[in-house]
Amino acid sequence: MKQDLLAYIREGRPMTQSEKLRLIVSLSVPSILAQISATVMFFIDASMVGHLGARASAAIGLVETTGWLMGGLASAANMGFAVQVAHFIGANDFEAARRVMRQSFVCCLIWSLTITLTALACGPFLPYWLGGTEEIAHDASLYFMLIGVFGMFFQMEGLAGSMLKSSGNMKVPSVLNILMCVMDVVFNYFFIYILELGVMGAALGTGLAEIVTAALMLYFLVWRSDILGLRGRPGSFRPQESTVRTAFKIGAPMGLQHLLMGSAQIVSTLIVAPLGTIAIAAHSLAITVESLCYMPGYGISEAATTLVGQGIGAGQKLLTHSFARMSVGLGIGIMTMMGVLMYIFAPELMSIMTPVAEIRDLGAHVLRIEAFAEPMFAAAIVCNGVFIGAGDTLRPAVMSLCCMWGVRLTLAALLAREYGLPGVWTAMAIELTVRGLLFLSRLFFGRWQERLSVKG
User: Fold this and answer.
1) To 5 degrees, how large is the angle CA 158–CA 159–CA 162?
2) pLDDT average, residue stretch 36-47
3) CA-based nearest residue to 332, from 309, 304, 310
4) In 81-120, beta strands by DSSP E
5) At what angle do helices 241-272 and 94-122 cross, to 10 degrees?
6) Where are the alpha helices (DSSP H) in 237-276?
7) HSE-up of residue 161 (Cα within 13 Å, Cβ side)
């Protein structure tokens, strides 16, 4: 049924409201389940480290935002090609979609090696640059460098998953991501507790799970995909100027956004670091707990990217607008309910993460502050997925950066002095609300639906 409804988009056939909602939900549910399971497994993963003590949690928390920065840069490169693939599939030009995909393998592999080498070069010095103390610097550096070594597999897993999702196949990437989370917990338990490798074991477990998942994801894309499979379909992997230029046009603003947003998160870590080991640990673990709320939003965002990308490729402007509005409304509704649950159960959720009472109480307090921002956070997340599907990445990136640097960091630096970590999280909640309102304004009044010109 899902593939039949996706064919309606490519064929220009009319769809009822119930069919549109059914398609959004059918694409969203596998991704939401994968996102939630990933968060739950990461929740368990962080809990394993948390039970090693405040020092271990602080070591990972110190470099965690820089790890997100690396992941964001990898994702930007992937989406530069995946959006083109979605547009070509929407236009029923499957051969052009496969040509773009072949070129993406070479370009993204080169990009991932660049990120890995940068991580290895910066690793020994990063904890000190971020204001970490000697007691956590060694573990933090080791964790970051190991995660960097596995960056190539993270890149390929993300690229293959993005390609499958662009074709409308949400099930396989979602199932494999769930499997990766399960493997991550199993491997981490083995390395952390059986081999007693501590923080190093957490990085090794995650890396091994990424290797297995990348191999499986590429298998289903290259050998099993009906639309994008390459078996029996020979072609060149040599990057073409037009494809790379379009990928750069889509991905560069996203990469710049991730770079500056990641830098902003690093600055946020610098603001939190002087507050002490308890504050660093509470900050890191509370972020993990909060991800339970916003993962459904990212699941719906991925569905919106697919639907908008194929809709624009098919020239279906009105249908694309309808998918965008319905997806955003669904995301706001679900994340609002998740925010209510997070507010109610914040102490219980933090108690799972750590046995240290001071960390637990501080983490629960900041989570309840953040709960009020979840509706507009949802708007920002899903709107961004809509804009990515349309290839509209520059203006949303500028809006996000202005909010992060002009609102969050400015307020955090001011409020942290008097209110400590709760002040930092208050600034975060205000910024997410402002960003969500701005993104909604662009969704309803902007010209994001103008199709980006792509060539195979």
Assistant:
1) 85
2) 64
3) 304
4) none
5) 40
6) 241-272
7) 27
Please determine, for residue 69, whether its predicted confidence score (pLDDT) is greater than 90. Answer: no
For the segment 317-337, the average pLDDT, to the nearest whole number, is 93
Cα(364)–Cα(377) distance, integer angstroms: 19
77: nearest Cα among 243, 250, 240, 228: 250
Look-up of token digits 């603001």: 271
The contacts of residue 122 (CB under 8 Å, 6+ apart) are none
Asked if residue 328 lies in contact with residue 52, where contact means CB atoms within 8 angstroms, the answer is no
Tell me: pLDDT of 313 over 70. Answer: yes
| CB-side neighbour CA atoms (13 Å) of 125 | 6
pLDDT in tens, 105-129: 999 999 999 999 999 999 899 888 8
390 and 313 in contact (C-beta within 8 Å)?
Answer: no
- Residue 11's CB is within 10 A of a number of other CB atoms, namely 10
Residue 311 contacts residue 319 (beta carbons within 8 Å): yes
Determine how many CB atoms are found less than 10 A away from the CB of residue 141: 21
Q: Output the furthest CA–CA distance in the chain (Å, rounded).
A: 65
Q: Which two tokens stand for residue 439?
A: 């993104």
Q: Within the chain, how many helices (H) and strands (E) appear?
A: 17, 0
Write phi, then psi, for 206 (nearest 5 degrees): -65, -45
Kindly state the tokens that stand for 348.
């219980």
d(CA 314, CA 18): 21
- Is residue 456 scored above 50 in pLDDT? no
> Burial code of 76-111, b = ≥16 C-beta within 10 A, e = fewer?
bbbbbbbbbbbbbbbbeebebbbbbbbbbbebbeeb
Whole-structure pTM value: 0.77
Write the DSSP symbol of residue 449.
T
